[in-house]
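EI: anyone free to look at a 216-residue chain?
SC: sure, send it
EI:
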Amino acid sequence: TPPPTSTSPTTKPITPSPTKRPVTPSPTKSPVTPPPTTRPTTPVVPTTGAPTVDPEFLLLLSKLPHAYPYTRFTPWMELESSEEAIATNLGYNEDLWDNLERHDLEGEIFDDLSSTNKQNAALLGMDGNIWDCYMNHYGGLYWEDMVAEGVDQYWAKLGWDQEGWDEGGNDPDTEDMYWSDLSEEQKEAAHQLCFFDLSWDWVKLPCWSQPQLCED
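SC: here you go
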């Protein structure tokens, strides 16, 4: 694979970041099984006040390795005007913001972002750890880089290996699974990559707290 043209990460990865992002572990086509009809009541709250959480959400937070990015998971229409302006500076619009992994920027690891984008991400509450885990899920790294980060084991539990990850092709079955189809071990691995049911299934942000908006 030819070396990428982006700036090399400051964390000194073993190999340069991929020139194209590996396939993300969310359904790329409709699985045979229908999507789950019930979802955890994950509250989406603006950052201007203390979040109101329920026991189910607290349990989810305990399973995630990094701080939950409340602002990033707030629907576009509920952002403060200052937050919307910062998101716009990052190249987001309502569609790209409310639909996770649609913005090309989320295909880059934090170290490959421009200094301006790093600053704007930080203003939205996302440092390198949060960005790489929740936004990129380490998808911008080669397998050897993930070994260095200690996260390759979680992708391996989801069916990936180095050849498939770095070269593409032979995607694991989990690529076409909804969250409800994953085994408990796979869900635990996905949590360590900052996935949970709503983000894995690519549920649109406004539907997280109002699932009726997405009912057919």
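EI: The two ends are 43 Å apart (CA to CA).
SC: 👍
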